[in-house]
């Protein structure tokens, strides 16, 4: 367990294994624990770095407005602190949004980009969009984090044999700092870099669960805007694919990373 400071905020990270650097970034309201099923498999081949975004996990939770660009700047500072050079980046959900932000702002920092169950923008356009966001926003303010964690657990891990994952989800969610959680949620709404995706030059893998919150078709649309991207759909999975289909996820990711490494050797 290690910490570094960026702009007055202490940020928690962990590093495992040796080799080319591989940075794994979690989703909203989560932490480095999103990757517990990946670290052993990936650290056999790479130097794996997992980080808690500010406002999350063991990182500080400053009372301020958060932004995707700010989260991205924290990770640039982490890469500089560890003298990583270009990294393989993997981001889940909000971590994917941070990855897109990094890829359009600092393309030279990425060796490859893997986006898991995410999107390059969260625009609120129609009346229905506004209603859906308002509903989520209100519920998050009204309900306790424990209640939200239980509801999320039963939605994301509905199978009888997933009881352990449901319990973990509820426990982990309850540990969130509510104000930081809401500030992070606010950072997502209205954010977007979709119009700049042509700048993402590195090999890109978009992983979509077949039963993610947003349809596979949405991912197909933005994959076409990325110069060097392909889509992998993982069956019988919901939003947290690294936890509900770890073997399939790890295999898909490792094959992509090894191909990206070969590609970079050719250039």
Automatic annotation (TrEMBL):
Source organism superkingdom: Bacteria
SUPFAM superfamilies listed in its UniProt record: alpha/beta-Hydrolases
Gene Ontology annotations for the cellular component aspect, listed alphabetically: membrane
Keywords in alphabetical order: Hydrolase
InterPro entries per the UniProt record, alphabetical: AB_hydrolase_1 (IPR000073), AB_hydrolase_fold (IPR029058), AB_hydrolase_sf (IPR050266)
MF terms (GO), sorted A to Z: hydrolase activity
Ranges of residues in domain AB hydrolase-1: 21-244
Record-given protein name: Alpha/beta hydrolase
């Amino acid at each position: 367990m290690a910490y570094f400071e960026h702009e007055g905020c202490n940020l928690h990270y962990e590093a495992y294994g040796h080799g080319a650097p591989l940075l794994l970034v979690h989703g909203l309201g989560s932490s480095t624990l999103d990757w517990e099923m990946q670290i052993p498999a990936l650290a056999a081949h790479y130097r794996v770095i997992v980080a808690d975004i500010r406002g999350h996990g063991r990182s500080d939770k400053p009372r301020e407005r958060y932004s995707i660009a700010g989260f991205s700047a924290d990770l640039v500072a982490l890469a500089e602190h560890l003298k990583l050079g270009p990294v393989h980046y993997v981001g889940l959900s909000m971590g994917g949004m941070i990855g897109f932000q990094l890829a359009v702002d600092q393309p030279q920092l990425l060796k490859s980009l893997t986006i898991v169950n995410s999107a390059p923008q969260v625009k609120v356009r129609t009346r229905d969009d506004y209603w859906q966001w308002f509903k989520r926003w209100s519920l998050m303010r009204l309900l306790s984090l424990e209640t939200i964690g239980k509801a999320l657990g039963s939605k994301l891990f509905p199978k009888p044999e997933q009881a352990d994952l449901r319990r973990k989800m509820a426990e982990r969610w309850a540990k969130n700092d509510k104000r930081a959680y809401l500030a992070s949620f606010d950072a997502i709404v209205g954010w977007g870099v979709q119009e700049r995706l042509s700048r993402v030059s590195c090999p890109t893998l978009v992983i979509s669960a077949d039963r993610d919150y947003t349809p596979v078709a949405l991912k197909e649309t933005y994959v076409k805007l990325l110069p060097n991207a392909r889509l992998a759909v993982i069956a019988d999975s919901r939003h947290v694919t690294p936890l509900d289909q770890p073997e399939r996820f790890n295999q898909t990711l490792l094959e992509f990373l090894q191909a990206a490494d070969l590609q970079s050797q050719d250039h």
